[in-house]
Amino acid sequence: MKKVTALVVDDSKVMRNLVKQTLKKTGLAEFEFQEAEDGEEALEQFDESVTDIVFADWNMPRMSGIALAKEIRTNEKSHRVPIIMVTSEKAMGKVEQALDEVGANAYVTKPFTPEEMKKKIEKIIASLGAKDKKQKGEKSGFFKNLVS
Amino acid sequence: MSLDLERRESAPSLPTSLIETAEASLRETYASICGEAPRRGGDGDLPVNQSAVSGMISFVGDVDWAMVLCLPRTMAVALSERFMGHAIDFESSDMNDLAGELANIVAGDVKARLGELGIDVDLSLPTVVKGHGVEVFFSDEVQTVALRFRAPEGDFSMTLATPAALSLSAQSMEGD
Question: Is ipTM over 0.95?
């Protein structure tokens, strides 16, 4: 099974554990985890050569998930690392607009199931695969790690 | 010390649409976690001598109000098992996290439903208090309603208050 390193960012330890547990249950990969309590701590943890995918809570003290996504996207080396926002926001129009603005790839709303999480990740894999094929460039780290 | 969710019968009631929206959000969120929506178990105080954990979220925007989700100890532990797949120790800080997160999830659903009605609100980060004899104190000007629910995991309550000027307290209190 492929190894994927996920950076899980949430000010709630319970939610970080739930995300980790849910990812393991998807069966998509053997996940290894980096953890952070807010966006600022996540930026310290984030390493584009190690981090394959980011799961960030929307609302956090100090630096929100949206601000974190913006920061990650401004870095040329990390701009293709997939970011999934984890949110209790259910006003979908607003969520999607915010995701578009910062370049996050997807979102999951709490509470979520392994099946929902799996679908989101598979959709990202398909999207990245299509982009890689179109651009004939180097595959993204996440894509390389998750797809044979 | 009794678990007391104070209700001001003399104060004007909250808008019915707000109460219905909050109740619908709570029932749907609960069902998505536990597979079954809780039943309304009558308004008023929860019974007696229980430790509880409460998560409070304030809504600010077109309507300013607050929501307090109060989970008695046994119910909170049972709910943690349904949400996390394993029981969380009531005394641990993880239980505070959980209560705040559950309140946040319900509030997120409320916000979306209010948005569909053209009412725009933002959410505060959750405030959590845990202890024995948790009470919610309201001033006389505050309009409140306490809704009780009954589920296989236990009884619990949701209190709504407007304007959002309330405070939480408990004996042996521990808060975030």
Answer: no
pLDDT at A93: 75
Q: Residue A62, class by beta-carbon neighbours within 10 Å (0-12 exposed, 13-18 middle, 19+ buried)?
A: exposed
Could you give the number of structural domains in chain B?
Answer: 1
| Chain B environment of A15 (Cβ under 8 Å) | 97, 101
Question: Å from B140 to nearest chain A CA?
Answer: 32
CATH architecture of A3-146: 3-Layer(aba) Sandwich (3.40)
Q: Break chain A into its structural domains and give their ranges.
A: 3-146
Asked if A61 and B125 come within 8 Å (Cβ–Cβ), the reply is yes
Judge contact between B62 and B120, C-beta under 8 A: yes
Euclidean distance between CA atoms A104 and B165, whole angstroms: 36
User: C-alpha dihedral over A128, A132, A135, A140, to 10 degrees?
Assistant: 90
Model confidence, pTM: 0.79
CA A35 to chain centre: 12
